[in-house]
Structure formats: C-alpha cells, structure tokens
Design a protein that fits this description.
The protein is α+β, with helices and mostly antiparallel strands. About 35% of the residues lie in helices and about 30% in strands. The relative contact order is 0.09. Keywords: Membrane, Transmembrane, Transmembrane helix.
Amino acid sequence: MDSDALSSQMTISNREFIRSLGLALLMLSVSALVLGTGYLILSPELASHQENATRADPRPWTFSGGDLIPRLGSGKATEENYLSITRLDQGIDDRAIFTRRTNLKAADLPFLEYRITDRNPGSSFYLIWRRADSPEEVFNSTIHWADDHASVIQLSNNPDWQGTITEIGLDVYGDLRDQAPVVEYLKLAPSQQNLLARAIWNEWTVFREWTQRSAHHLRGTLETPILSPTLAMAAWAGLALLLLFFLARIKKQSGFVSYIIAVSIPWIALDMLWQSNLSKQLDETQYLFAGKTQSEKHLADWESDLYQYAQHLKKSVLPAPGVRIFLLNGEPHRTYKRLKLQYYLLPHNTFNFDQYPRPGSVQAEDYLITLGEIEGLKFNADTSRLAWSQHSLPVKRLDHGEHGSVYLYEGKR
C-alpha cells in the first residue's frame, strides 16, 4: 500500500472518529437534558416538600452570620455583619456555639443555603436547632466543608427537621488552625428545583473524609443520599447508548465508536469526582503528617486519644513485654477500636477475642484490659473481684479511666 492510500485511509478514519465523537456528545447532551429535567420535574423529594408544606408560598429566612449570638467560644461581627469565629472553648472537645431565636416551620423550609469561608477540614460545623415540641433537646445536621463556595444541603433528609423551630445556630468543633472561619449567611429556603440541583451537586463534590472503602467506593455525604453519583452516571450513559442504538437502526449503520465514547465520558466524569476528593485528602494528609515522627503522626490521627491511652498503659501501668494481656470489649467480636488498641500495645502479647474473661484460660500474673463499659461485667472494690454471669475472678485494679480499666489476676485466693 503506497503512502497516499494510507494517508487517505487515515484521513477518513479521523473524520469518522470526529463524527462519532460529535454524535456521542450530542446524545450525551440530550440524555443529560432529558434525565436532569425529568428528575427535577418528577422528583419525589420536591413532591414530598409540597405535600408537607404548611403554607402555599412560604418565604425564605436569611440570617447573617453577625445575627448569631455566641453561647460558647468567641466570635465578632465584621463590617459586613458576618460572623468571624475567633476562638473555641477548650475542654473535652474544642467547641463554639452560636445561635439565635426563631419561629418557623421546618416543613416549609427544606433547604439550607450557606456560605462559610476560611474553613479547613480539621474543623467540624453542624447546623443545630431546637423544636417547640422538645425544647430541651438539641438536634443537628452536618455542614460539610466545601472550600469557600456557597453551598446547599437538603435538611428534609434529616428526620429531626420537623415541627416548629424555636432556635437555630452553629456548633463548631475541632481545630481552627490559626484561622478565623467567617460565617457570611445561613438561608433557610422553600422547595425549589434549582436548590435541589445544587444540593445534589454539593453532595457529590464536598470533601468526604477518607475511609477504608474510599479507594473503591464513592459515597454520598448523607446516610440517605439524595441521588447516588454512580447511579446518575449509569443512567446518563445508558440513555445515551439507547439513543445511539435507535439512531444506528434508523440509518442502518454501526455506531461502535460512539458507543465507547458514550460510556467513557460518564465513567471519566465519575472518576473525576473521586479524584477531586482524593486531591483534597492528599492536601489534608500532607498537612497532618508531613515531616512528623511516627509518634507525632499517631497524635495527629483520628484515634489520638486511644494512642495516648495505650502509651499511658505501656509507660505507667503494664510491665515490660512478656506478660499475657487479655483485651475485653462490650462486643463479642473484634471491633476496629479494640484492634487498634491491640496494635498500639505492641510488642505486648495481647489476646483480643472475647467479651468476658475465660476462667480456664486466665493464669496468675495475667492482665485484663476492659475497653469501655462491658454490660454484665462488674468490679467489686470491696472484695476485689471481677464478676460476670456465674463467674468471678480475684483481681487487683491497677488503672481506671475514661477508656477502660486494667486488672491484674494474682491467682486463686
């Protein structure tokens, strides 16, 4: 085959690819338009909002950050009447609370639009409220970190968002990291199609903390997400493929390349959502752990309190490695927390299996660690015995605190 013929075939192939790409993009556009419009028009969420609303035309309620009153921690109003959070109260949790009185119907205002700038992933924000039917109880909904963008969440997904709301505000935990987050506004809004669309987008794009499943699973930010991004991308590609199939039947030609493109673009879009969250997690991981020793990394990690407890036991309570340690917990199986404590106690020889001691297995000079409260397991300080069911062991309690207790079995008395 001469070079001119080869060039001609390549030119035809390039034209065919461009035609297939254009056709796939057109069908994907039609698919997105049909599915997006159809979902917003026929959305069960919007139908539920209309059914539950107490007024035909409720008005939105907008609170500037400066309207919130400090109840715990410190903040100041800016010139724009925004709230600048300057300090969290030190305690078991570093915390600040800002609220104001209200009188509104939750069913009329299913969406929250908010803008909070200068946040970081190390701080946790919650919308909090009280209801007329339960004035002493405080309810909450997570406000996820979304950089400095204005965002929307659907409050009606929270079963506690109901009745008459008498007080509303923000509960802030964590580490401000030498920043002063600025609450510009909170806006409670009635049901609207554009707010539902923004709430879905917010749910797909806000930062989600990395979990053991994150490498293979893109989850929503709510226990009951509005719309799964995986399902949405599958529907987007599926309808585009169906449209391409019918078009190919009408024109009596194959559209194989268009089919591949119509599947690849939604797949790549889904992967980009995952990659966006991964990039934010990489930045957060670098901030938390870069340049630190192994001990400092453990102290910066989620289970820092458990790590400090393990260090306390190793330095002040337990002898040198070589003794046997039985780790007990309220769950009969090995939960993540008890496995983590076992890891932190290395190189100690820790048996991590049961909810209660095994009387036939425990020997003199063995140690027992109870992680948290264990139902049915009681220590009698008067008799120095650890009792459960029909059994008991003579023990000496060596340590007792928030995370658990440590006992030494000295043998039969």
